[in-house]
Every structure is written in structure tokens, then in C-alpha cells.
Amino acid sequence: MYQYDQYDQKMVDTRVEEFRDQVKRRLAGDLTEDQFKPLRLMNGLYLQLHAYMLRVAIPYGTLNGKQMRMLGHIARKYDRDYGHFTTRQNIQYNWIKLEEAPDLLAELASVEMHAIQTSGNCIRNISSDQFAGATADEIADPRPWAELLRQWSSFHPEFSYLPRKFKFAVIASDTDRAAMRLHDIGIQLVHNDAGELGAKFFVGGGMGRTPMIAPEIRDFVPADELISYAEACLRVYNRYGRRDNKYKARIKILVHELGAEEYTRQVEEEFAHMKELGLNPPVEELARITEFFADPAYDEQASDELDLSDPDFALWVDQNVSAHKQSGYAIATISLKPRGGIPGDASSAQIDLMADLAEQYSFDELRVTHSQNIVLPYVKKSDLYALWQKLDEAGLAPANLDLITDSIACPGLDYCSLANARSIPLAQKISERFSDLGRQRELGELKLKISGCINACGHHHAGHIGILGVDRKGTENYQLLLGGSGAEDASLAKITGPGFTEDGVIDAIETVTDLYLAQREKGERFIDTYRRVGMEKFKEAIYG
Amino acid sequence: MVDAIRLRDDDVHEEPAVSLESFLDQSNATAVRIEAGEDARQLLPYLDRLSLIEVSFPVFGDGRGYSSAQILRESGYTGELRASGDVLVDQVAYMRRCGFDAFAPDSPINPKHMEEALSRYEHVYQATSDQRTPIWELRHG
Lengths: 544, 141
Hints:
Radius of gyration of chain A: 23 Å
Oligomer: heterodimer
CATH class of the largest domain in chain A: Alpha Beta
Number of strands of chain A: 20
Strand content of chain B: 15-25%
CATH topology of chain B: Rossmann fold
Order of helices and strands of chain B: EEHEEHEHEHH
Distance between the termini of chain B: 44 Å
CATH class of chain B: Alpha Beta
Largest interface: A-B, 40 and 38 residues
Number of domains of chain A: 4
């Protein structure tokens, strides 16, 4: 994985000192809260319901054991002994003291980590495929491109006060594990006819109040023009994106209002001008970064044989272990969705253990997924049983990847000042109601996503089943949505009808899953049956 | 309004800046002010005779002025480029990178804080109109 050189380290260290100075000025009263707010946001510090929340960047979700252990240390020292892995492949801490934040950032910098641009109206952490570098279905590792974009977008002077936040995702496979087309800019690496690697650009996707699937605006941007093309996309947005209404300020609204064709025309015009300005890095830079992502030293003799005589282990392998490009190896996903647990939460002891296991079994590398789980990308098959036993002892071996209890949930009203309803207790109750693993496996792949308000941090628009918490005359009310997908078959979920109480919405989920079981044809997932049968049938079953 | 802080050596341009609309109407003005949301590209045919372009920042979070400045500098404008309005010390370094060389903040900025802000970062990651050498060029120098 990528390692800082003296330049990267200096940038991050300088930022820590700058922020220390800003905090000092704030505590001394030299900065008003209004003036301080954008500065702390650029460093990932939000003021939430009860305390400051700090979001730490995990670029493209990749980190090593030492960095993971630091996240555990921070949970112990600065928070209440746990952290929360997020849908942006980051980690959040919910109980941070402002006066301690500079020291915390200094500790992060000591392991090449930071919280730069994890909030604010700027270019956020670049997300990517959690199986990058390990899966056979990719044409290249997308992370070097993501790292190049990370550097370019860090401290970008022209694009740090955009109309709204701005999110990139980079993938390199036709299988989309990163909800790429639900990003402001989604990039898929592709080959052109000459066999050269380049970037296909999708612009103007997003969730929030007005969900949109990003249209393709260019089928091929050459590697050596990636940065100038991204500059052109951003400049058109910065100049013309709406600033009169924060709910209409995302690039998806601009692209939608102009039309993809007109937006593309303007980007191309800007690009024609910008490609002459020398904005692109030397071609050697992408090559330099790519070297950091070379394959680990695989054991070429490693065997594909696996002893599945322990039935619980066999279930976990079947559900949570994915095919690897290297024979004798596997990709293991650690589910952070235990029965009745809080999706994405991990204690400092669990974080430490995952760090140890990564060092011992996965060439010192971990990934955070946008589904709030952790991946060990390079596990020898012969080590899987030992790995599973250690995970199981620590409560980290739920065999529920992509099943109904592997839900995504935003922090909701328990923490978030924007929320209208609680998300976490609902996720916990659903997890209890559907706890029988046999039943979950019978239901098969089922992406359940819960947001506590229309800002959609819990990705409810992209759920096979989505739940949106709203405030209805002072009480929490939950709307049910069906038919969304954040994968390569991207689609937006639709609301079934009137909302429910917390228990009512769980009953409604049972109703729709029962209907699925009754209606499905061979090999159909929930989403497939829904698409074939249509919303009306499901509505009838729910509302009768 | 306090006096503008200038990071250039030439004399202060005395002619007051006119609005973009009046500038485009009367062809002899040499100083113009563009508001956030106005299109800096309309000035490109006249850059040679302009000595002062003032770019307005109605609130510090409105970042359109950064792109306006970049566009003007990329097109060869060499006169004074002044950021005016809600200009705070915490934004001046980015403004400088986008080509601003004068600041007319609504509230005074402590010159010491300004100096610190402008000199804090030794290196930069990306190329802009200030012509500083990005880190990726230094790596492959």
C-alpha cells in the first residue's frame, strides 16, 4: 500500500500545526464559531448533539495494522473505547473534546493518517473497491488512481469552497462494490481500443434528498489527462453550481438542470483550455504510486484445499469469503454486524485484534467497506480456519455478509444533529427479528439500508429494502422503500406508501420478504423478484 | 472597509473599479469589479488594458471567486487582482494560490497572522496559476 514520502508527511504535519493554532484562537475567543466552523470541518470535526464528532480519513478504505491499532488507541484515549466505521470507508469518533483534537491529529499523523477534508464543501475522501488488488474481476488496481486524486484534491485552493461536498469513487471492475454511480464523480478504469488504461467518467450521481444515478459523460480519459479532466469537471461545477439553496447545491442538480449533454459540452470546452496549462502530473508519478500497490509476496505453492468439517466455519466461508485472483488465497470479510449490534461499531479491543490478524494473516493490510465491514484481502486458505476461530472468539465472525442483517445504518438521532429519527435501534431490532441464520440465508442477498433523515447517509435509496426515518408530528415514523441498488445494476428505491412505527416497519419487512419467498423463481434474489413482479404486488401485501 | 493589503510593488491604481456591466458598456475603464456569479470570461478580450480587477467574496464560503481568479491569470492577466469582501486570514493562502495579489477584507487582518498563513505550507500538491512547483514535479525533478 501507499507510503508517505517526506513531502506527504510534511503536508500532514503542517496541517496539524495549523489546526492547533486555529483551535487555540477559537478557545481564546479570537475566532467566532461561525468563522471556526469551516476550518474545523475541513479537519473532519463536527459539532453533534452531545459532543464533537471526528471523522478520520481512510483513503480508498485501505490501511495497515499499525494504522488500525492507532484507531484503537484513539478510541481508548480520546473516545469511549469504540469507533464507528462509516459508509465513506472512514471511521468516526463520537465523543471528542475540542481541546484534545490537535493532539489526536498529531497522533494520527505519526502513522500517516489525517482527517483532512473529511467534511466541509470540498473534495472528500476518495472511495474505492474494497476488493481492489485482490479480486480477479478487475482490469487493474484502481487505488493508484485514487491516490493520485487524493494528492491532487488535498488542499486544492480552487475547490475548497465548492457549493457543496464532493465525493469521488474509483473502481476498475464491471462489478461495482463501491456504489460508484452514486457519487458526484464516479470513475471506472477501462481499456480503450489500443489497450491503454484510462478513465470512464460518470458525473452527477448522489443520494441525499434528490437521488440520482450519474450519467456517463466521457467514455475514455487518458491516464495522463486524468487530473486536467477532473479540474474541468470541478471548475464548471464551482462556477455554476447553485449556492442559493444548500439542498440544490450538489453537482447532480447542476447536471440534471443543464442536462448531461450541455454539462459535458461545457466540461469539454473547459478541458480543451485546461489540458494546455500543465496541470497534469508527470507520467512517472502514477507509475511511482502504482509500485506501492504491487502484489504481496504470495506463496505460489499455497493450496486451494479447505477443510469444511466444522459446520459453523463452513457457513462463514460460504457467506463471508470471496474468490481471490491468486490461487490458494481468499478475501475474508469481517462482519461488524453482530446480532443486535450497532452496524459499523467496533471496540478498541476488536480494532486491535483485527490489526493483529491483518499482520498475521493478510500481509499487513485491511480494507474498510462502504457497507461498514472490514476486509482482510490476502488470506491464505490454509489460514482461514485459524483466522475464523480468533474472530469468532471476539464476536467478529457473524456469517451474514450481504444478508438482511448486514445492514447499513447512519448514526441517526442517537448522535446526529440533522436526524429526524433513530436508525441504530431499528437496525438492532431488525437484526434480532431476523437473527436466525438459516432464515437469513434462505432470503439470500438482501441489502437493507437505513437513514434517519432525508440526507440519506444510510444509503436508503440504494437498498434492496430501504428505510427512511422521518418526523411525523413529533413522533418518529419510518417509510419503507423497495428496489434500490448501489451495484452495477444501479437503481433508486421507491417508497411503498404511508410510513410505519418502528415495530410496524419491521412487520412490513417481514411481509415483503414473505412475498418474495412465495413469488421467487429459481435463482432470483429479492431485488430480481421485485423487479419482475413490480411494486403493486408488494404494496397490496403490505397495505392490503 | 480598510486599506487593501497589496503584495505587489507597483503603485496603487487610483481609478475606482466599475461594475462589470458598466465596464462592458464604456470601453475606457481600467478597473473593474466582478461579483460572485458574474462570468470572468467576459473580461478576457480586455485584459491588456485592465490594471485592477476586484473580485467580490460576499461570504467566505462562496468560492466562485477562486475560479474567476484562476481563469483571469490563466489567460495572462498581470494587473492587480484583489479579493474583496468577506476575506479572512484562513482563506488568504488559497486565494494567493489562485492568483490574488491584493486583499481588501471587510474586517482588518492582523499582518503577522497573514504572513504566517501565506508562508505556512512549504510545498503544494497541485499546479495553479501561482506557478509554484507541485510536489509531483519535485519528486521527478
